[in-house]
UniProtKB/TrEMBL annotation:
Domain of life per record: Bacteria
Stretches assigned to the DUF58 domain: 197-367
InterPro entries with a match to the protein in the record: DUF58, TAT_signal, vWFA_dom_sf
PROSITE patterns to which the protein is assigned, alphabetical: TAT
Protein name stated in the entry: DUF58 domain-containing protein
Length: 434
């Protein structure tokens, strides 16, 4: 495809002005004014011929990427035409976005170049680069020659494993050094392990008086922490969870916490299940165990889609409660901004906590807090701050009501949510609350 540049259009317009000037100065010599546009047309045709040449374009994309990170796409090109600069653009799917301008300037050396285009991974899913456009000017700068190439190269955008890789081993080692991991397996647990001789410093309530009478020495019951606990991640994937926090949807922030906590739980001998819901249950997995099951957890979290419906707590949590046959730790990831939906959540929570231990995880709404703390400069700023303060107050009232019911509530910053969830799980396990 060939079309004129701005320079060619301006020169042609100057030719029209010149024709008017010649006609006004000497009406009998108006034909001389046609020389200018004819010269421009000839120069444009010459520039179009000189911009021709063989072309080779190769696009290399990452094999996969994590949501929220930036990866590079590499374009290698070689032009047979004489050109110093080319412009490059990509047609992409909504889950990925080029950083900076959509049109990139590429400097050519001997007609060749290799350029890296940074791509921001906005959401989970399958990213596609469907087409590539490349254009360059002729040596006179009068024409653009544009090349369009179909690409259609997909690559998956996966849940973010970086917090798991960075923090998982650190948390595991830290708790092991502190003796917490040992306490999970032996110590003040709930399952009877053995009778041991009573020593000073041991809890007197652990003395088994009947066995001590038969053995004629003090014996104490030694317990070990129960393994095979059920950890159920209930993830709200409704409309509010699709809203971005610091450029990343709330849903993906929560999934990073799920992966880190699941990695620890599987290595501590517990069983893990994933449940996702909005207006109805979307993902309801069975319980998996063992370190090798983490790949299944990752696959399940990658399949959770962004919902557009309002969350139906009654349907989702009642269905979850019916499928749990024994006491479990249910970690509910959600977001509530109005008291109407929160009322349904509170009603269902009362049913769930009769049998199970519930931990509710929400993200701090830093945007609302910024509206409240900002200095108002206009009446709109005052209205915005008052509305934000009312929403924050309603939110804190719901959190206070949940805590009054005996529910653990974790309200964390988006940067700290993954380690905060993992540490809350380890603390519950250390206290043997299951």
């Amino acid at each position: 495809m060939i079309y004129p540049t701005r320079r060619a259009v301006v020169l042609m317009a100057l030719g029209a002005l010149l024709a008017l000037a010649v006609a006004a100065w000497s009406s009998g010599r108006w034909a001389m004014a046609l020389v200018w546009p004819l010269v421009i047309v000839l120069l444009v045709g010459l520039d179009a011929l000189k911009s021709r040449g063989p072309l080779a374009v190769a696009l290399e994309l990452p094999g996969s990427a994590y949501v929220g990170e930036t990866r590079d796409a590499t374009v290698d090109l070689r032009l047979g035409a004489r050109a110093d600069v080319a412009q490059l653009a990509l047609a992409h799917s909504p889950v990925v976005e080029p950083l900076g301008s959509d049109r990139s300037e590429v400097g050519l050396a001997a007609g060749a170049a290799s350029v890296r285009l940074p791509l921001a991974m906005l959401r989970r899913g399958t990213a596609r680069i469907e087409r590539l456009w490349l254009r360059w000017q002729g040596p006179l700068g009068l024409v653009w020659r544009q090349h369009e190439q179909a690409v259609d190269q997909p690559f998956p955008i996966l849940p973010d494993l970086r917090p798991t890789q960075r923090l998982g081993a650190t948390l595991f080692e830290r708790y092991a050094v502190d003796g917490t991991m040992r306490q999970f397996t032996r110590g003040e647990g709930s399952d009877f392990d053995a009778l041991v001789e009573f020593r000073p410093g041991m809890d007197r309530r652990a003395i088994d008086w009947k066995s001590s009478a038969r053995a004629t020495r003090l014996l104490a019951r030694h317990y070990h922490g129960e393994k095979n606990n059920q950890i159920v991640f209930a993830l709200d994937c409704g409309r509010q969870m699709s809203e971005p926090v610091a450029g990343l949807p709330r849903l993906d922030r929560m999934i990073a916490g799920i992966l880190l906590t699941a990695w620890l739980a599987l290595r501590l001998g517990d069983r893990v299940a994933i449940n996702a819901f909005d207006s109805r249950p979307r993902v309801a997995s069975g319980l998996v165990s063992g370190a090798g099951a983490f790949a299944e957890v990752q696959r399940l979290t990658a399949s959770i889609d962004y919902g557009v419906d309002e969350t139906n707590y009654t349907f989702a949590l009642t269905d979850l409660n019916a499928r749990l046959s024994r006491r479990s730790l249910v970690i509910l990831f959600t977001e509530f901004t109005d008291r109407v939906s929160a009322r349904f959540l509170l009603a269902t929570v009362r049913l769930l906590i009769r049998t199970h231990l519930l931990l509710v995880v929400v993200l701090r709404d830093e945007e609302l807090e910024a509206f409240v703390e900002a200095r108002p400069d206009s009446a709109d700023d005052v209205t915005r701050a008052i509305t934000a303060a009312e929403l924050i107050r309603d939110r804190q009232e719901v959190i206070a009501e949940l805590r009054r019911l005996g529910v653990e509530v974790l309200e964390a910053d988006h940067e700290r949510v993954a380690p905060a969830i993992a540490e809350a799980y380890l603390e519950i396990k250390r206290r043997d609350r299951l």
